[in-house]
Specification:
One of its GO terms (molecular function) is tRNA binding. Its main location: cytoplasm. This is O-phosphoseryl-tRNA(Sec) selenium transferase. Pathway: Aminoacyl-tRNA biosynthesis; selenocysteinyl-tRNA(Sec) biosynthesis; selenocysteinyl-tRNA(Sec) from L-seryl-tRNA(Sec) (archaeal/eukaryal route): step 2/2. Homotetramer formed by a catalytic dimer and a non-catalytic dimer serving as a binding platform that orients tRNASec for catalysis. Each tetramer binds the CCA ends of two tRNAs which point to the active sites of the catalytic dimer. The protein has 17 helices and 14 strands. Helix 3 crosses helix 5 and helix 6 packs parallel to helix 7. It has two domains: about 220 residues, Type I PLP-dependent aspartate aminotransferase-like (Major domain) (Aspartate Aminotransferase, domain 2), CATH 3.40.640; about 150 residues, Alpha-Beta Complex (Aspartate Aminotransferase, domain 1). The protein is globular and about 85 Å long. By secondary structure, it is an alpha/beta fold. A seven-stranded mixed beta sheet has the order 1-9-8-7-6-2-3, sandwiched between helices. The chain has a three-stranded antiparallel beta sheet with strand order 10-14-11. It has a two-stranded antiparallel ribbon with strand order 4-5. The two termini are about 45 Å apart. Bound molecules: pyridoxal-5'-phosphate. The site of pyridoxal-5'-phosphate has 13 residues, from helix 6 and helix 7.
Length: about 475
């Protein structure tokens, strides 16, 4: 309500009560004003009522909610289901205009404001999470793979004759397909084995640049967050190489915002060399539904060029979800989640090590990977060839999600390219293994229950290979399962 309405209210309710109500409302409004002025993630999380007040204020600024509106266009923000309208806080017009996802829509001042504020808040989060010098970013309603494709398509205009993308191998299909879908030829650079870790082969990258010619290379496509025993690429060295040969550099930072190490690598790479854009998933870093990513970089013009590359308007849902999330967590809440994740990584590593020792296996030594861990399955494989894949299905039926079992020698063809040793980021990794990750939102209970079930499965498989009936197969829900919500 505005001043006028408040004073009219005083005819109905005692003036002192109304004044108290005015003051209360001012508290919410002050928070909204600070957000609009500073464009930063508030330090303390907002209450749901402040968030809803803000979103409702935005919604009434859009033409689909104008009381006297009559529309005769082909897109008037009409929604048949009230449930759908409420699900979107009546922000129906989406973001951008045909031809530019960052443009302001005359019909939708509220949605346009939402878009600008979200991009600004997300930029603040990228900065305080470690990439201090990032200058520009935008939320795009596509997941990581497609967002990488958009970056490659934008670079095509700058380097029309380039055909190749140099890509230190990471066995994740969307990463590979993001290049193929954009119409480029990925040049796979195999990783080198250093101890247990798979690391970027810098010499092989440089050799390829010289062999193919820098002008024929669209970019280097590197990766930070990845499954162990692969570790984040040597970003600084790659960035320096890209600067030396004037080759663009796109970084896949899929779930790297949650790790200060991944963010530091990007910051350092940009400081000493060249990084044109880095891409991160919204769901993997901010605990929102799948469907959005952030494209960020150090040169505002290039990031603007990418946003202009997006054809047409876009869904506002990913922006809305991440804005609501960050407003409710506040910077403090988000940093707390990051700190808890880091602590639980150490806990998970200790628990996996103890488990590995107990079963004659080894926690692979991958100190450069800050999120994902791997435990060897050598002993299991030695007992029985099929036991490794069996472990995968046992974990699945026991509702341990996210634990990946990587057998030896799997072959897979992705968009015409055959990968030997698929899933292991290497043609011939020395042992089969199991992955587990400490990702944002993980709880101590997740760690403890999954270790307990993993232990049970391993024991069961050992018995199986000795010809006894598997405990895990005979009783798929053991006592610990009773604690599953
Ligand atoms: C390193 C990496 N890059 C990219 C992706 C693909 O992400 P999206 O599904 O958001 O396209 C994943 C998904 O797991 C990933 O692990």
């Amino acid at each position: 309500m505005n001043e006028e309405n408040f004073s009219v209210s005083e005819k109905l309710v005692s003036a002192s009560y109304v004044r108290q109500g005015v003051q209360a409302r001012r508290g919410h409004e002050q928070l909204i004003r600070t957000l609009l002025e500073q464009g930063k993630c508030p330090e303390e999380g907002w209450s749901e009522s402040t968030i809803e007040l803000f979103l409702n204020e935005l919604a009434v600024m859009d033409s689909n909610n104008f009381l006297g509106n009559c529309g005769v266009g082909e897109r008037e923000g009409r929604v048949a289901s009230d449930l759908v309208a409420r699900r979107h806080y009546r922000l129906i017009h989406g973001i951008g205009r045909s031809g530019d996802i960052a443009a302001v829509q005359p019909k939708a001042a509220g949605s346009s404001l939402l878009n600008k504020i979200t991009n600004s808040v997300v930029l603040d989060v990228l900065r305080f999470s470690g990439v201090r010098s990032v200058s520009s970013c935008f939320v795009v309603p596509m997941a990581t793979g497609m967002s990488l494709t958009l970056c490659f398509l934008t670079l095509r205009h700058r380097r029309p004759s380039a055909r190749y993308i140099l890509w230190p191998r990471i066995d994740q299909k969307s990463c590979f397909k993001s290049m193929v879908t954009a119409g480029f030829e990925p040049v796979v650079i195999e990783n080198v084995l250093e101890g247990d870790e798979l690391r970027t082969d810098l010499q092989a990258v440089e050799k390829k640049i010289e062999e193919l010619g820098a002008e024929n290379i669209l970019c280097v496509h590197s990766t930070t967050s990845c499954f162990a025993p692969r570790v984040p690429d040597r970003l600084e060295e790659l960035a320096v190489m890209c600067a030396k040969y004037s080759i663009p550099h796109i970084v896949n930072n899929a779930y790297g915002v949650q790790s200060s190490k991944c963010m530091h690598l990007i910051q350092q790479g940009a400081r000493v060399g060249r990084i044109d854009a880095f891409v991160q998933s919204l769901d993997k870093n901010f605990m929102v539904p799948v469907g959005g990513a952030i494209i960020a970089g150090f040169d505002e013009d290039f990031i603007k060029e990418i946003s202009k590359m997006y054809p047409g308007r876009a869904s506002a849902s990913p922006s809305l979800d991440v804005l609501i999330t960050l407003l409710s967590l506040g910077a403090r809440g988000y940093k707390k989640l990051l700190a808890e994740r880091k602590e639980l990584y150490t806990h998970l590593a200790q628990e996996l090590k103890t488990l590995a020792d107990r079963h004659g296996e080894r926690l692979l030594n991958t100190p450069h990977n800050p999120i994902s861990l791997a435990m060897s399955l050598d002993g299991l494989q030695a007992n029985c060839d099929k036991a490794v894949t069996q472990l995968g299905s046992m974990l699945f039926t026991r509702q341990v999600s996210g634990a990946r079992v990587v057998p030896l020698g799997a072959e897979q063809t992705v968009s015409g390219h055959t990968f030997r040793g698929f899933m292991s980021h290497s043609d011939a990794y020395p042992c089969p293994y199991l992955n587990a990750a400490s990702a944002i939102g993980i709880t101590k209970k997740d760690v403890e229950l999954s270790i307990k079930r993993l232990d049970k499965c391993l024991k069961g498989l050992k018995k199986d290979t000795k010809g006894e009936k598997s405990e895990s197969e005979s009783s798929p829900s053991g006592p610990d399962d009773q604690t599953v919500p």
